[in-house]
Amino acid sequence: MKPEKCEYDAVVLGSGPNGLAAAILMQQNGLSVLLIEGKETIGGGMRTSELTLPGYLHDICSAIHPLAVSSPFFETLSLAGHGLEFIYPDIAAAHPFDDGNAAILKHSIEETASQFGIDQKAYISLIEPVVKDWPLIATDALGPLHFPKHPFAMARFGLKALRSATSVSSSFKTENAKGLFAGMAAHCMQPLSNLSSAATALVLMSAAHLKGWPLPKGGSQQIANSFASYFVSLGGRIETNTFITSLNQLPSSNAVLFDITPRQLLQIAGHKFSNIYKWQLKRYRYGMGIFKIDWALDGQIPFTNKQCRQAGTVHLGNTFAEIASSEKSSWNGRISEKPFVLMSQQSLFDNSRAPEGKHTGWAYCHVPAGSTVDMTEAIERQVERFAPGFRDRILAKHIMNSAQVEEYNPNYIGGDINGGAFDLGQLFTRPALRWSPYRTSAKGLYICSSSTPPGGGVHGMCGYHAAKRALKDVFNIIIKSI
């Protein structure tokens, strides 16, 4: 049955990485696509602005992008001439300790492992198989639950990834190796004792060894701008400053893809859904929130450990036990006095971010969902702990508590930047238990946000898989797997 003649073949609501990916794939396949964004600028979590002082460019949400350069779909795009340039710090991430030592994550597995002494072989044994298998399993791992193209490679990954970070780290004897792994695992925003909490650490560390942890020159907004430029070059259309609250506001189309979370989806299209699907969406769980600070600085951050001064990302949390305690507290609704802090220092590598001789700082910590507690002092105390004199270099700052984070981006419910809790209970069933997680119960309506597999991150794979499903269902266009 042929699709009806409509104003557009498809409409995509939301211009985050997944909305852009969905719009691009559908436009690539000869459809007419309209991408609608509620704000004045596109990007979702990929936006950059002068939040503090003139001339200081701060990434409002995402900052460092290992998954963007590792994304199987983004790797297929011809972005030459669309203004995107990535900068790769030699040290992807550093993890300082109270004794002045630091664990570092570098491109070389061997160089990273060599710092761990008696844990050198254990680190190689853990990471090297994942790095070797990742090119084979990336599309399957970053997608819905299904039978993989390389089942044995996927099984090898799954046996490690589905374990808890606590369990995996027990193979290490040194605090340096354990601490580095804890900082990586904490990106999953759940207790490190939870099953599947090791997965995020394995993916991020493997990404560093395969491609690196780059930052886009000029800010994260440049990723969104380049993808949008490519989309428009294919004939796609973008409409900004159009906040949609009802299906009646949309132009006619055969398919609508929503880069939003279940809560907004219910508000916009809930009357179209079956009772069981609405029941499932209402039960969808969101995770902990974040508290974010951006600083304009009079100089670079004076970390005691000199390697930290050369890293694009710095994890501030000391030992595995301290990080695990902080994450468990936030998950259970308590504020941590020593929060795990995720920090980036983009201006060290990109001089377009700050005036000559000046710098920017970017950091956040995890907090209970919806928290309005001011974590400025706690975060700055953590930075000062490993970089004495840091406070003396602050010229200005901009803060966002988790409620303000949601106000800025309605997809970040309670400040949850992952689009929903990323624990084992929702790893494969986000946002609902269905044959295809991207289909809603209403014909022609699809969800393509980070509330679908594989979850949060700037990789666009949620949008790719949703668009692939819609192309087959509605337009009888079958896309070969990438």
Summarize the structure.
This protein has 482 residues and is an alpha/beta fold. Helix content is 34%, strand content 16%.
The proportion of residues forming helix, as a percent range, comes to 25-40%
Mean pLDDT: 97
Unreliable stretches: none
- Write out the strand line-up for the largest beta sheet, numbering strands in chain order: 7-6-12-13-14-11-15
Q: How would a crystallographer describe the biggest sheet?
A: 7 strands, mixed
Name the overall outline. Answer: globular
Straight-line distance between termini: 27 Å
Number of helices: 16
Instruction: Report the C-alpha radius of gyration, rounded.
Output: 21 Å
Strand runs, count = 16
Strand content: 15-25%
Determine and state the CATH class of the domain at 86-119 and 171-209 and 287-408.
Answer: Alpha Beta
Decide which structural class fits the backbone.
alpha/beta
Judging by the overall fold, what is the CATH architecture of the domain at 86-119 and 171-209 and 287-408? Alpha-Beta Complex
CATH topology of the domain at 86-119 and 171-209 and 287-408: Polyamine Oxidase, Chain A, domain 2
Topology:
Layout: E1 8-13, H1 17-28, E2 33-36, E3 48-49, E4 58-59, H2 66-70, E5 86-87, E6 91-96, E7 102-106, H3 109-114, H4 120-141, H5 151-161, H6 165-169, H7 175-185, H8 198-210, E8 215-216, H9 221-233, E9 237-239, E10 253-258, H10 262-269, H11 275-282, E11 289-297, E12 311-316, H12 320-331, E13 341-344, E14 359-367, H13 376-386, E15 394-400, H14 402-408, H15 424-427, E16 445-447, H16 461-475
Parallel strand pairs: 1-2, 1-10, 2-9, 6-12, 10-16
Antiparallel strand pairs: 3-4, 5-8, 6-7, 11-14, 11-15, 12-13, 13-14
Helix pairs in contact: 1-9, 1-16, 4-5, 4-8, 7-8, 7-12
